[in-house]
């Protein structure tokens, strides 16, 4: 047998270094106990794997007690320490509303000039040459349907009846990849960020604002580039054909869900947008009946976004069997927590089949507690494995199945303004239909798999920061699970499930502070008992006990005046307290996303 051949190479030169920023505190520089010249300091990074960094700054005295941000510039051969530059102070993080800066690896900086230079010049107009390369849908009754206050419109819809009696249905998604040329500074920055993070009073964008809220946003009465999925359907919502086109659209209306419903219900209206909405509504209801659902209710828009994602997944897999980017959710069920939760309120949740699960979940309704059914559905989703981005050629065909949505194949195509995986899918689809030329890295399954793993991690981190944004914020919640040393609480306002660990389960003399009843389950203290599904109030804040290592923290302020600690989502905590974990694994946070019922 011949020896294994291993390819090898040598680094010829480094064209450009990645400038990572570091977080920590300053201390005066001294050599053998003697102070050095004024302005010299050592920066002590929070990351213990990073060496101390030599800094010269005239602001050092006032920065000594603050957390700061520093760049590493170079490391001279004759220097014990690398050299860096002071960037900014992170003091009073809460007052600035930038709690996301507590995570060193989370991108939050302003877009660089190099990124800004990649953007089109304003005013931007669609040319005759552009129209020659795209399908012109500007005359269609296209509209968007979003939540109130939405400023970013990345999807729009239309439906019309054809002369043969069938229906033409279109989903139009912002053509972000037209502006995001591969390999450019703006493309690299978007890939590094991975996704936009929508905080209550602040938004960390994946793309510069010019693209996010202007050129890529399918605003009312604005001509925009789109990537369109068009189906021909029968009156029974049977799909006869699918096509994928680069297009130009002009949205006729930007509606909220309630505004769209009012148009559908108002029989006196017969304009083209209202007629389109009524057709969309009818087809959405038929599609829902055809699709085996996992129990999650979906809006009309979500139903068509699901259909678009499924159709695109099939098309890119057909074109690229080894390099299609898919979203999967493995079949890994543990329904014991769901069954127990249902029984606590007198409902028997059946899990022998998807149909039984759907029916029993739909029947589990408490009129006096509207949140109960939502909590059960979240528990049902969490009894399944986490969904991930994968590359088709590196997993088996059986692993394509998305068990959360109960569909054999799925991807993310419909949110390219705020999610980088969708950009990759857009590029694959563009090559598949001949609108763009292929390039090696796009079809390299191993490189794409590395990118998918990075994006899976970044999007998990993004979920964490969706709700950490303010000091002293009190929010209402409901208890989902109770364990001997922890509670899991649903915060409906953020569609978030968080785990709260008790700081101390026993007193100094060894007596139990809490009485835990596994049968209930209940947790009692000081004459107060917490039961599953009880309402509670949670206060979000930042623990600044250790300035160098500030932590996201919560306080349960009702029903019990007790402190709880939340370990980081990804980092492993080292304290004895945070190493305690409940018997039930912590639930993954749920994020509601307009246009996607499940991420």
From TrEMBL:
From what organism does this protein derive? Answer: Araneus ventricosus (Orbweaver spider)
Recorded GO molecular functions are: 3'-5'-RNA exonuclease activity; endonuclease activity; RNA binding
Q: Where is the RNB domain?
A: 134-435
- Which is one Gene Ontology cellular component term of this protein? nuclear exosome (RNase complex)
Name the InterPro entries on file.
Answer: Dis3_CSD2, NA-bd_OB-fold, RNase_II/R, RNR_Ribonuclease
**What is the name of this protein?**
Exosome complex exonuclease RRP44
Q: Keywords in UniProt for this one? A: Exonuclease, Hydrolase, Nuclease
Q: What is the lineage of its organism?
A: Eukaryota, Metazoa, Ecdysozoa, Arthropoda, Chelicerata
**Nuclease in keyword set:** yes
Q: Which GO terms describe its biological process?
A: nuclear mRNA surveillance of mRNA 3'-end processing; rRNA catabolic process
Asked if the record carries the keyword Ribosomal protein, the reply is no
Encoding gene per record: Dis3_1
> Would you say which domain of life the source belongs to?
Eukaryota
Q: Where is this region: Disordered?
A: 573-599
